[in-house]
Structures are given as structure tokens and as C-alpha cells.
Amino acid sequence: MASSLPKKKRDKTMQRIFNAAQKTFADKGFDGARMDEIARLAKVNKATIYYHIGDKRTLYERILNEIFSGIADSLLQNDDPVSPAEERLRTFIRMLAGLIDRNADLAAIMLREQASGAKDFPETLAQDFARIIGLITEILDDGVKTGIFKQTTPVIVHLMAIGTMVFTKMSSPIRSKLAGHVAAFDNIGNRLENEVAAEIEDLILGAVRK
Amino acid sequence: MASSLPKKKRDKTMQRIFNAAQKTFADKGFDGARMDEIARLAKVNKATIYYHIGDKRTLYERILNEIFSGIADSLLQNDDPVSPAEERLRTFIRMLAGLIDRNADLAAIMLREQASGAKDFPETLAQDFARIIGLITEILDDGVKTGIFKQTTPVIVHLMAIGTMVFTKMSSPIRSKLAGHVAAFDNIGNRLENEVAAEIEDLILGAVRK
DNA sequence: AAAAAGTTTAACCAGTTGGTTAAACTAACC
DNA sequence: GGTTAGTTTAACCAACTGGTTAAACTTTTT
């Protein structure tokens, strides 16, 4: 495709670097990731990364920002504040499941960030988190007011939703190995969508519903 | 305390190394952890680690084994197969919450292992996992038979329980920072036990109850 | 008490890795 | 066409890090 847009070459190079970095950080974590490998994956000289973006930590934070602002945008754009709270919560969970399922890197990076306890948590990230928590708080409050949800702590419900999905998504290889050990083991495969996502959705709805 | 037991010095040294290693791996991850730091924390010469245990990966796998076999033992020992399924599930969740709350390193290490997708997952670990999944499967089946639980996929319920607790535990610093951003933000602090653990317990019970 | 077995230590090292640099190359501008 | 600004590259390097070694030290055994 002959440069579909008159976009600057700079942007294309940057995008290749970001893609490579996201995959590498997801697979190996910040400390395990090698700048040489990111460069190789991006088909770019290592010095080009330093020229365009900066050092390893800066590159990593850019990736984090891209990911979490993307999630927050998705969730907020797809929320319809006038529909019933149950529908809104289902949409919220379904969107999240879709994002995680379409991009396993998200799950890995979220887990690692959570494990690091948000040491050196950049301010911009906090704002995206706040947007997400704000939304689910609003949805749950809505449900409580209309009498269909019981009183819960929104953060916990949110952590339940995201924790369940991320763990389910990433545990796929472990579950495959386990299939040989537990007799009645129900292997649910790698996919989060469809039946599995639907079950998670139902479980969480069951948890908050009055 | 003047050597409370005639235990060999070896065991004491080993224990110091394991403690230091667990903390370091939890804080920094496998790649981020430095053997020199583990040695310093354990107040032992680095070579002593290699003499008693072996290389970094071996040390790490020992820690993993200690942690997960401990969890599996705790859960199985505290299960009372003749009590009602709801009680058994509550005990299961409460035990897990207690373990995670008493030792934050568990949560961090679990998250990182999950993020790595169980690459080079040692066989012994698989057996402990199998024991845990076997137990919760039995409990949930029990509840389905006695008509109090709906039909669910045990692995998913288990991942929901563990995911929720681990995420809640480790998100404490993020939540503190967030408290400044979201107006109606409900900061639940660092503790998992008491109210928060009780709420998680109720949420999960609500999710699986008919 | 001396020999043997077990444990600790300081010093060392080779391979790796994040980051730099100066020169070459390319696109834009006059 | 030539000059300038922007971009890419190969080669390089200093700091770090997992792991080793040989010698010293301690405990157990005979």
C-alpha cells in the first residue's frame, strides 16, 4: 500500500516502535524487556528509539498511557447514561471483556502494573483510572437508586470484574496444563468472549443484583 | 533466643535466604530481582546462596513451590467436607483472603506469575494448583447437588475469587492516589480482612447462589 | 588433636544491556 | 544545485549482574 496517507514517515516509525514495545513489555515485563529486542521487532535501529522517544522508562510510560486512555475512552464512549443500570453494567463488562480478549497484551501489562503496586505511577494514568472508576460508580449508584442493585463498594466491584477477566484470560496456558491433573476439569480454552465472557457477566450481575 | 531448637545452622541460613528472596521477587519480579540484593537482605554472602540452593531460577522455583503448596495445604486442611456447601465456600474464600492479607508478597508473586502466563511452569506447581481447583470444584458441585448454587464453571469462580482479592490487595497504593481524583471515591485502605473481605465473600456468594 | 566434611567469604569475571556518538543518508527548502 | 534540517545507522562503551573460585574458617568425626 503506497503510503495510504501523506502522513509523515515519523509517525509510521513511531507506530512500529510502539507496537513492538507493547508486545515486548507485555511478554517480558519492564525489567525483562530488552531495548535491542524492541528495536529488532520494530525493524528499527535501537538508536532510532532513543532519537524519537527517549529512554526505556519513557517508552514504557507512553505505552501505559496509550493503553489505559484507550480503555477509558472505549468504556465512556459506549456508555448510554439513559439506559437502565443493568444494561449499562452489562455493556461496561462486555466492552472490557472485548478489549482484553482482542489484545492479550493489555491483560499482561495490567497484571504486571498491579503487581508493581503502581510504583512510579504517572499522573496521567491516574486520571484515566479516575474516569473509569467514576463511570462504574455512577452505574452502580444508578442501579441502587432504581432499586435493582444492592449497596456495594464500586471499586471492589470494578476490581472483581477486571480481576476475573484478566486472570481468566492469562490463565489459559496454566489451565491447559492443569487439564491433565484434575479429573473433572473444565477446560475453557483461551477465548474470553462468547460463553466465558457471558458467564463472567452473569456472575458479576448476580453478585451486585438485589 | 539461644537457638530454640538444635536445628542445623543450615536451615536457619536457608530460611533467611528464602525470606529475602520471597520479598525481593515479590517487589521486583524475577528479572528485576538482583541476587546481590537478596544476599544483602538475607545477610549472607552471595556465594552462599549458590552453595545452598543453586542459581536464580532454582531459587525462584523453590519460592513458588513453598508459596503454592502452603496455600493448597491451608485450604484443604480447613475444609470440612460434611458442612453445607455455602459454609465450605465461605471458609475457602476466608482462608484465601487471610493468607493474602497476612502476606502481600503472595499477591504480587501470583500476579506476576499470571502475567508471565506460566512460562516454564514447574510440574510440582501444577499439582498444587490441581489440588486447589479440585477442592473448589467439589464444593461448587456439592452446592449444585443440594440445590443452593447455580451451575457454574469452577475455574472461573475460583479465578474470580482469587483475582478479586489479589487485585484489591495490590491496588491499595493506586487507590490512595485515586482518592484525590474521584469525588465520591470510597477508599478502602490497605486491609483486605474484616469489612472488605466480608464484602468480597458476599459478592462471590451472591454470584454463585441460585 | 588432627583430619575430614561442611560453610562462608572476598575477589573476580565474562556476558549482557541501556544508552551514546559521530558519521552517513534522505527529504525539504531556497 | 546546494544548503539545511531531520532521520537512520554501525560501532562503541561503561555499568551492571549472574555466577565462579580458591582460600579461609568452622563444625563434626575419628
Describe the overall structure.
The structure is a homodimer of 210-residue chains. By secondary structure, chain A is mainly alpha-helical. The first copy, chain A, is 72% helix and 0% strand. Chain A contains ten helices and no strands. Chain A has helices at residues 9-32, 35-42, 46-52, 56-77, 85-102, 104-115, 123-145, 154-170, 172-178, 195-208. Residues 1-6 of chain A have low confidence and may be disordered. Chain A binds a DNA duplex (30 and 30 nucleotides) through residues 9-10, 13, 34-36, 44-48, 50-52, 55-56.
Concise synopsis of the structure shown:
Chain A has 210 residues and is mostly helical. In chain A, 72% of the residues lie in helices and 0% in strands. The radius of gyration of chain A is 20 Å and the shape is globular.
Count of DSSP strands of chain A: 0
**What's the shape of chain A?**
globular
Main sheet overview of chain A: none
Number of helices of chain A: 10
Annotated CATH topology of the largest domain in chain A: Tetracycline Repressor, domain 2
Main attributes?
Tetracycline Repressor, domain 2, DNA-binding, 72% helix, mainly alpha, homodimer, 2 domains, disordered N terminus, 210 residues
Question: Helix and strand layout, with pairings?
Answer:
Two copies of one chain form a homodimer.
Chain A: H1 9-32, H2 35-42, H3 46-52, H4 56-77, H5 85-102, H6 104-115, H7 123-145, H8 154-170, H9 172-178, H10 195-208
Chain A binds a DNA duplex (30 and 30 nucleotides) through helix 1 and helix 3.
